[in-house]
Specification:
mainly alpha; Serine Threonine Protein Phosphatase 5, Tetratricopeptide repeat; globular
Length: 465
């Protein structure tokens, strides 16, 4: 995946509801043709719709399904063949949107073609059409599950997009094909643990405290594929190989992953950064480098917080923690602002910047970035929660209530995030003297989780007042 900034004219991924009426009518005709098994006509219609609106993800899925039905089961020669991918790679750099149209013309002949689907992924990724990029590799995953090379690429894509559950599922599929693939075995454990940690993380990105035994156990489980001694021995072997040839991409990438397992975040960041350089700009590796830099900062905060907790009267330790947090907050804003400048249409990067600005107390600057981040359905509720907190911090209670109410309406299961949204919403209602609305929020939590924060006291005291 090349690390290019999307052009200003890059298409935006849309749903059928966002299509102009004339294109929406064409989609209805295509649906009718598919129902009547007139698949060739449906393909023709959908190709014309996608030429006009390349970001219509569901239309691309309908097209591929129709093409596969016409083609029948995948043929061996088409699984790994290049098709027309080679000649299109050069054009992709100059005209990525036009190249997508050309790729589709080739895929019409062979929808299972791995090289063409991989090129569709790469071009879509560079245009920030992330759902399309995922769909392209998911096509390979379903059609040729033994193509573990591209499945690894898909897993890394999900990992870089902070979708650990999806990454874990892909790694699991790889292990089914090749149980000896230690990278996939480790990846599945690591991503499963990270998904569990993500479900317990504060939406504002607050760090997990050192005494959170459950989270620390999950982190330990993610590293349990090898003992500490085995990891260090393997590291030494790879370091020796690296010293013999610092440009060996496979060794550099393995060494980066090993430093990550050892929680040597600084070295992991350096190795992922070098791997990114050697790969000629693999954006997923750049994202890993950025993540390692963030983890290094988080670890330093944990160390300083532990020092303060152990010595609460140590003014020097408190000053060191405050100074580091302020310096880190400013550095994170600068770093994440640069990431947004490199890829301005990425909602996840907008959220990361908004989060950094929120922690830096720059609430007004955080708002527009968080508003843009709501376009990503995978993080939308977390964004709305943080947006609500940001409006609340600015004293705009009515706006905060609107954001949190939207987030609450979109959450159907009473999980940790919904409890957090309801609790925050209750606090703001209480602040503006909407006592009944506040109590209603707290009661919803009380009904399923008596021990959540102080909701039991708030609910029970309302009956005695």
């Amino acid at each position: 995946m090349a690390d290019q900034s999307p052009q200003e004219s890059s298409p935006v991924e849309i749903s059928v509801a966002d299509l102009p009426k004339n294109l929406g009518d064409l989609v209805l005709k295509a649906d009718a043709a598919i129902e009547q098994n007139n698949l060739g006509y449906a393909v023709k219609i959908l190709l014309s719709v996608l030429k006009a609106e390349p970001g219509f993800v569901d239309g691309r899925k309908k097209l591929r399904a129709a093409e596969m039905k016409i083609a029948g089961p995948p043929k061996k020669k088409g699984l790994f063949g290049g098709g027309g991918a080679g000649k299109l790679k050069g054009k992709a750099k100059k005209d990525p949107v036009g190249t997508i149209d050309d790729i589709e013309k080739e895929l019409e002949k062979d929808p299972y073609n791995a090289a063409l689907n991989e090129l569709l992924h790469d071009v879509s990724f560079n245009l920030n059409m992330l759902d399309t990029a995922a769909f392209a590799l998911e096509t390979i995953r379903r059609a040729t599950p033994d193509n573990t090379k591209l499945l690894h690429k898909l897993a890394l894509f999900y990992e870089a997009r902070n979708l650990p559950e999806e990454a874990a599922a892909v790694y699991k599929d790889i292990v089914k094909v090749d149980p000896t693939d230690t990278e996939a075995v480790k990846g599945e454990k690591d991503m499963t643990a990270r998904a569990s940690m993500a479900r317990s993380q504060d939406a504002s990105g607050s760090l997990v405290k050192k005494d959170d035994k459950e989270t620390l156990a999950l982190e330990k489980a993610a590293r349990s594929a090898m003992t500490q001694d085995q990891l260090e021995e393997r590291r030494d072997q790879l370091v020796q190989q690296y010293n013999e040839d610092v440009n060996n991409f496979d060794v550099v990438k393995k060494l980066a992953a090993l430093y990550e397992q050892l929680e040597d975040w600084a070295m992991a960041q350096q190795m992922y950064e070098w791997a990114h350089t050697l790969s000629a700009g693999d954006a997923a590796l750049k994202m890993k480098s950025n993540n390692m830099k963030d983890r290094a900062g988080e670890e330093e905060v944990r160390v300083l917080e532990a020092r303060v907790e152990e010595n609460p009267d140590d003014e020097e330790a408190k000053a060191a923690l405050d100074e580091y947090q302020q310096t880190r907050a400013a550095a994170q804003v600068d770093e994440r602002r640069k990431r947004v400048e490199q890829n301005p249409t990425d909602p996840q990067l907008r959220y990361d910047l908004g989060q950094a600005l929120y922690h830096a107390g720059e609430y007004s600057d955080a708002i527009p970035h968080l508003q843009q981040a709501t376009r990503n359905p995978h993080i939308r509720t977390r964004v709305l929660l943080l947006l609500g907190r940001t409006f609340d911090a600015k004293g705009m209670s009515d706006m905060a209530i609107k954001q949190l109410s939207d987030a609450n309406s979109e959450l159907t299961v009473m999980d940790k995030t919904k409890k957090e949204v309801l609790y925050e919403l209750g606090l703001i209602h209480d602040k503006v003297a909407s006592k009944d609305d506040a109590l209603n929020c707290f009661k919803q939590i009380y009904e399923v989780d008596y021990g959540y924060r102080d909701v039991a006291h708030r609910v029970e005291s309302s009956y005695s007042s």
